Amino acid sequence: MKIFRNIAILVIIPVGLLMVVWSHNNRAAATSIDPFVGTYHGTAISEETDELKARDLDVTIRKKDEAFTVDWSTVIYKSDGREKKSALSIEFFNTDRPEIYGSAMRTGLFGKRVPNDPLKGQPFVWARIVGKTLTVHAMYILDDGGYEMQVYERTLDANGNLDLIFKRFRNGKSIREITGKLTRVNY
What we know:
Layout: H1 2-30, E1 38-48, E2 51-64, E3 67-77, E4 83-94, E5 100-104, E6 106-107, E7 113-114, E8 124-130, E9 133-141, E10 147-156, E11 162-170, E12 173-186
Antiparallel strand pairs: 1-2, 1-12, 2-3, 3-4, 4-5, 5-8, 6-7, 8-9, 9-10, 10-11, 11-12
């Protein structure tokens, strides 16, 4: 009995600890932002009430230390000739969960970057990287207490370009899905 306890202390426990450290390091490497870093430009088409609308898309992903920033802008061309422009920049940081990144969208009371407050109508945003897909989730709490989710899935193709799938849900019901293709224009 004493021999088995000694074997456990000398062999099994250290090997177990090495396996935990090794799997954590490999999981972190698999979820790196590095392959996504660059500037992309592309287009998307959405269908709304039997009307096709073209969109110009620009995305820039930058890495800084242990954080990364995703900047994106969209120009929607309306059928009457008007243009609707929107842009957003979000800084993401590592969390204790290896595949999930928190957002820092505003400056808090003591000058530190912090997440938005969804109870004030601001989007609560987080990101995750699984394989070749960077997904950004934005949750809004609506004035009536319901919620809206916006999901941006950006998947690297074999040439380093991005395939985009944008999904919008309100109270769990899908209300829009848009697909697009973005070409890498610089690293």
